[in-house]
Amino acid sequence: MVNRLRPLLNELISPHQSAFILGRLITDNAIIAFECLHAIQQGTIERNNLCAYKLDLSKAYDRVDWGFLEKVLSRLGFQSSWVQWVMSCVTIVRYSVCLNGVPLESFQPSRGLHQGDPLSLYLFLFVADALSYALQKDVQDNIIEELKILRHTPGISHLLFADDALLFFRANAEQASRIRNLISIFEKGTGQKLSPANAHC
Q1: Which residues is 103 bridged to in the sheet?
Q2: What is the pLDDT of residues 33-52, one digit of tens each?
Q3: How far apart are CA 135 and CA 13, in angstroms?
Q4: CA 134 – CA 128 distance, rounded (Å)
Q5: If residue 189 lies in a helix (H) or strand (E), which one and from where to where?
């Protein structure tokens, strides 16, 4: 399943995501991030009115909502049988806790992706891409202003590094409030939770 899914990711996952996709390097986004931060710090007064906001998702793989993942795969056009196979791999997991060296009765979780499973890396990208889609839609609707290093260069509203993200927007209360609302909707829909201790502006 991993080998079948991997070649499709470049077309299905937003170009803002740089992790785990053939032909993309996570270091590319790191270089772009450095240039964006440099432009904000050293650029014109107009650029200095933009800010960067770093997001870190807490226990990102453990919090993935299974229902959301299934709907995303179906929405992207995967055949229902293939979606069922994927969801079987995801939901078949069972855990058991040892108490004083004695394993207790096993139980089934209600959410999350099994870390260490190569399929989980790619499935998580579909979850993270929901935030990218929402941000890009607001940019197209002129609700969020993206960063442009030069006048005629492409704008950058966000960069994704698997379960981490760096957002760029106008540093005012209106856009900050909109970003907060988008993150809240993303959390509720996907089961994710922002780690406040690791969020920096």
Answers
A1: 98
A2: 999 998 888 866 566 688 99
A3: 14
A4: 11
A5: helix 173-190
CA dihedral 178, 179, 183, 188 (to 10 degrees): 0
- Are 191 and 65 in contact, with CB atoms under 8 Å apart? yes
CB atoms within 10 A of CB 65: 17
In whole angstroms, what is the distance from residue 142 CA to residue 145 CA? 7
Structural contact between residues 159 and 37, judged by C-beta atoms closer than 8 angstroms: no
Strand partners, 71: none
pTM of the model: 0.86
Q: Are 20 and 123 in contact (CB under 8 A)?
A: no
pLDDT in tens, 147-197: 988 878 889 999 999 889 999 999 999 999 999 999 999 999 999 998 766
Cβ–Cβ contacts within 10 Å for residue 144, how many? 24
